[in-house]
Specification:
Layout lengths: L8 E9 L9 E10 L12 E4 L10 H7 L12 H18 L7 E5 L2 H15 L7 E5 H8 L8 H7 L10 H23 L4 H10 L14 H5 L6 E7 L4 E7 L2 H7 L9 H7 L2 E8 L3 H15 L15 E4 L5 E2 L6 E6 L3 H15 L10 H7 L9 H14 L1 H6 L2 H19 L16 H6 L8 H28 L3 E6 L2 E11 L2 E9 L14 H7 L2 H19 L4 E4 L8 H8 L3
Parallel strand pairs: 1-4, 4-5
Antiparallel strand pairs: 1-2, 2-3, 6-7, 6-8, 9-10, 9-11, 12-13, 12-15, 13-14
């Protein structure tokens, strides 16, 4: 009698490797567990076996693999030999095969993307047990998903597990992927039986053979269209949820109806992480606001509070705010008499700027011996993409020659800030006729700036010099922006309400927090923030990461209002009020 899929004991298996195939990579981690789909209780992580594997001598984990797995070279001190791991895995496979009937002596195994894992498993078998028959009868749940859900935007393990209401960790680790594979298999077995009357292993093999996966299919989404079509045409914050209520993503919109429905239009080019999110989102929550500015502020605060997995910008993660000394060479997490510049959102560009200053003052550029180390320190570009030593040397000399007069006549730190300010000014002049609010990213950089700091592969001395200037420009911009945000933290902001010239919305900031919000008649004087007399150092101390990002978002929204030619006013002090023209000029620099 043939065992049905629900009662079949299955091995769920997952691998991670240093490359995409055995020819260019080695097994790095392997994990597995045994279960039956009919056993509906969850699989505890303690029941999942996982091993890090010793790598061959001289093989190291590439940085890109460490970034996506969280596995680093130092973690391998507890790794196991491939031979011992194979022996343990083979023993489990033999026991599962013996438990099942009519499986031809093989272990039924489910892998979500077997096209990747199977070559590595076969290599492990051939190296450590070549005298035996390959013990696994593999079912690929990705191939099943392509046939069960042809219109789903994405069918990776996170997307499919989330579609079934399971949260898979972002890092690609075997333990988490095995748990997700168990959830996927259990739900797929039920779907196969209910929709196609596929109940046995042989029926599943035949179904996979006879049912071709569509190459093109109209996209379908878990979210019922009625949920999004009934949204109001009003500003607010929306929260994408899995069917089980897990929060996936938080966004803001001037029009909730237009923004949310734009995700589902054929013409929309959503990024990969958003397509993966939409493959799981089955429900929606919204909070209405009276303006797009308030929606943006609420979005930033809620992202910090809930840290949704598919929000990239504005999450806290491991971020810190930094303060640096006047000469840009010493750093601290709090401001004091020495560390005057800040708050700054990252330390790395400042470290790069410090390295630039060191090289200029010491003249060590001609004696650089490390192939890429100094280039990486100066440009902040990962070592594998950094310019070669000789090209970097010539590029640095090109930079010094270009700015020789400034570097000769000013202290190095002051000269560097001047260089960065001039570079920003030149970029503004070049982009004056094309920059719009849509070009501004959430970090306050334009797309052109992001492009110019991107990792480059074909380096020239000129591009090295340009990359150095870009680092300097970014640091100079951050320092200017920190002063602006400190000013904004104790101020009153007012803008025209929904293009109604007779009313305006007022927000009073105190310590970077919204102290008061109200709608008043145009012409009414703006109230003062209670902290308008607060000294700069105290303002610096009041800005934590939450308030820093909140005020940064406010600045971006002010740019949008300026681009829409909305009436805008800022009162930072007793006798100073900045209006449209002054704010338009100031916002170009921050």
């Amino acid at each position: 009698m043939t065992t049905c899929l629900a009662d079949l004991e299955i091995l769920a298996l997952d691998c991670q490797a240093t490359g995409s195939r055995p020819a260019n990579g080695c097994l790095l981690e392997i994990g597995w567990t045994r279960f039956r789909a009919a056993d509906h209780q969850g699989i505890p992580l303690s029941s999942i076996t996982s091993h890090l594997l010793k790598l061959p001598i001289g093989v190291e984990i590439p940085q890109r693999i460490s970034r996506i797995t969280g596995i680093y070279q130092e973690d391998l001190h507890t790794s196991s030999s491939p031979d011992a791991v194979w022996s343990e895995l083979f023993d489990v496979a033999r026991k599962i095969a013996a438990t099942n009937q009519n499986q031809k002596g093989k272990c039924p195994t489910v892998i979500h993307y077997s096209r990747f894992e199977e070559p590595f498993i076969r290599q492990l078998h051939s190296r450590h047990d070549s005298g035996s028959v390959f013990p696994f009868d593999i079912f690929c749940s990705h191939e099943i998903a392509k046939r069960l859900f042809p219109g789903l935007p994405r069918r990776g393990i996170r997307a499919i597990a989330g579609f079934f209401g399971h949260s898979a960790a972002k890092l690609k680790r075997c333990e988490a992927h095995v748990a997700a594979t168990v959830v996927i298999w259990r739900n797929m077995v039920k779907q196969l039986a209910d929709r196609y009357d596929v109940c046995t292993p042989d029926q599943l093999r035949n179904w996979l053979t006879e049912t071709s996966a569509p190459t093109r299919a109209e996209r379908t989404y878990p979210m019922n269209s009625h949920i999004r079509l009934r949204l109001p045409n009003q500003s607010g914050v929306y929260r994408m949820l899995r069917a089980n209520g897990d929060l996936l993503y938080i966004g803001k919109a001037k029009s909730l109806r237009q923004r949310v429905n734009s995700y589902f239009q054929k013409s929309t080019q959503n990024p990969e992480h958003i397509l993966e999110m939409l493959s799981q989102a089955g429900d929606l929550e919204v909070t209405l606001t009276d303006s797009a500015m308030e929606a943006a502020i609420l979005e930033a605060d809620q992202i910090k509070r809930y840290s949704p997995p598919y929000n990239i910008a504005l999450r806290k993660k491991d971020r810190n705010l930094w303060f640096c000394s006047r000469d840009l060479r010493q750093f601290a997490l709090t401001p004091d008499d020495l560390h005057r510049h800040g708050p700054l959102p990252s330390k790395q560009p400042l470290v790069s700027l410090s390295s630039i200053g060191d090289l200029i003052e010491s003249g060590r550029i001609a004696t650089i011996k490390d192939k890429n180390h100094t280039a990486t320190a100066v440009t902040g570009i990962p070592e594998e993409y950094a310019p070669p030593r000789d090209v970097f040397q010539r590029g640095f000399q090109c930079f010094c020659q270009k700015h020789r007069r400034l570097l000769k006549n000013k202290p190095v730190w002051r000269a560097l800030i001047t260089i960065g300010t001039r570079r920003w000014r030149d970029n503004l002049a070049a982009a004056e006729t094309v920059v719009s609010a849509e070009n501004i990213s959430r970090s306050g950089q334009t797309r052109a700036e992001i492009d110019e700091t991107a990792d480059a592969r074909d380096w020239t001395p000129e591009s090295v010099s340009d990359a150095i200037e870009s680092v300097i420009k970014q640091c100079a911009h951050w320092i200017r922006r920190s002063r602006w945000l400190c000013l904004l933290s104790e101020s009153t902001l007012a803008w025209e309400a929904n293009h109604n010239p007779e009313k305006k919305i007022i927000i009073v900031f105190h310590k970077g927090v919204i102290l008061e919000r109200r709608v008043v008649v145009t012409g009414q004087a703006l109230p003062l923030s209670p902290g308008y007399k607060t000294k700069f150092r105290a303002r610096q101390q009041n800005l934590d990461l939450v308030t820093y990002d909140r005020l940064r978002v406010v600045t971006t929204e002010m740019r949008r209002l300026i681009s829409e030619e909305r009436r805008l006013e800022l009162r930072p002090g007793l006798k100073s009020i900045l209006r449209y023209e002054e704010l338009s000029r100031a916002l170009k620099w921050v």
